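Give me structure tokens for this 118-residue protein.
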Amino acid sequence: MIRIVIAEDQALVLGAIASLLALEPDIEVVGRADNGAAALAMVRELAPDAAFAPADPLTERERAVLRLADEGRSNKEIGRSLSLSAGTVRNYLSEAAGKLGATNRIEASRLARERRWL
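Here you go.
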């Protein structure tokens, strides 16, 4: 039996994946997480044979903004580079951080880099 943890932030998709995998006789879904932090906790606690790590939720623009933020650029500098206002840059950074479960731009870029999305 292969024991797995599934991570997906969209509840319908999470349920569909879990239901499909439950049809397989050699797979047991031992955990379902709706965010990366919960998935990591489940992996540590349940020690599954595999984890089903989520797809990249970032848009191309969010990735571009995070890359520049990761270089230490200010919102104003990022905006100039991408022809955006500083407020729009702030919004993209906020959206990206929310999608990644990060509390700030530094954590968001670190998480995106670790997941190889940047």
